[in-house]
Design a protein that fits this description.
The chain has a five-stranded parallel beta sheet, with no helix packed on it. It has a five-stranded parallel beta sheet with strand order 2-4-6-8-10, with no helix packed on it. A five-stranded parallel beta sheet has the order 12-14-16-18-19. The chain folds into two domains: 46 residues, no CATH class; 238 residues, Leucine-rich repeat, LRR (right-handed beta-alpha superhelix) (Alpha-Beta Horseshoe). By secondary structure, the protein is of the alpha/beta class.
Length: 291
């Protein structure tokens, strides 16, 4: 090999490295082993006007395995991982916003970590049928249907969430227990069709529960409403086809609604709650603190 030929090869290798760096700075992962003539498809995946801080429609039809971590991205854009198969976990330490349908039907997604994200938009994780764990310590707002259809979701952490919107956890059929310390409103059909798995829900400060919020949650036997005030129940249909109303097939334990002892009588006589007066159990302050 002549010196001139070697020099040309070196220049090509350097050019390839520069192209990969430029593409990955736009939030696009270039798979190991990709040849120079295969870079065009990755360049085409870069959203128009992308400045390297948001991924949008970047991964459609691509396959990923293992763990994908990107510290450069601050927003995961619309449809960024939509329909992406494989078997992978994602970690975005600096993402603030997860936009609509960002992971829609991303059937390869197993777990997601977003330590500083504050907002999850509508349907962001809808249809992620293999997502088992989602940790969002800083999120204060999520959109409608954000986790709908996450059939294997077992662990969800949203300690700062303030409102559970419409259909947020619809058909989350593997969720067994969840606590929402900051949620004040449970929206329409929020947990609908969680089926027999969802047994316990804890709400520390909830003040409103909407119609059909827990409908078709066959296994819901323990509901904790811990705020020292009576929570508004929009309609008794919040509990349609649960052990509390209309479903008698669950016999493992008697269903209970736990409330502060000082408000036990008020709950039993409150609008729409009267249908469930026999299910209320009062808790002392010490018992609540121990939960």
């Amino acid at each position: 090999m002549t010196t001139e030929t070697q020099t040309q090869i070196t220049r090509l290798e350097n050019a390839k490295a520069d192209i990969i760096t430029a593409i990955e700075n736009k939030g696009i992962i270039v798979q190991s082993g990709t040849k120079l003539d295969g870079m065009a498809s990755f360049i085409d995946a870069i959203p128009t006007g992308s400045g390297g801080t948001e991924m949008e429609d970047a991964f459609v039809t691509r396959t990923l395995s293992g763990t994908y971590e990107n510290s450069r991205v601050t927003d995961v854009g619309i449809g960024a991982f939509a329909y992406w198969p494989g078997n992978y976990n994602v970690s975005f330490p600096n993402v603030v916003t997860i936009k609509s349908s960002a992971f829609f039907s991303a059937t390869g997604l197993r777990s997601a970590s977003f330590p500083v994200a504050t907002a999850i938009q509508s349907r962001a994780f809808s249809g992620c049928t293999y997502l088992v764990s989602a940790i969002f310590p800083s999120v204060t707002a999520i959109g409608s249907g954000a986790f709908a259809g996450c059939l294997r979701l077992k662990t969800i952490s949203l300690p700062l969430l303030k409102t559970i919107p419409e259909s947020a956890f619809d058909h989350c059929t593997a969720l067994v227990s969840a606590r929402f310390p900051k949620v004040t409103t449970v929206g329409l059909r929020a947990f609908q069709y969680a089926s027999s798995s969802l047994a316990r829900l804890y709400f520390d400060v909830v003040s409103k529960i909407s119609a059909s919020a827990f409908s078709w949650c066959f296994g819901l036997v323990s509901l904790y409403l811990l705020k020292k005030a009576v929570c508004t129940l929009d309609a008794s249909t919040a509990f349609t086809s649960t052990p509390f109303l209309g479903y008698a097939g669950y016999t493992q334990s008697d269903p209970h609604i736990y409330v502060p002892s000082a408000y036990l009588s008020s709950y039993k006589n409150a609008t729409n709650w009267t249908y469930f007066s026999s299910y209320f159990v009062g808790l002392t302050d010490a018992q609540i603190s121990a939960l």
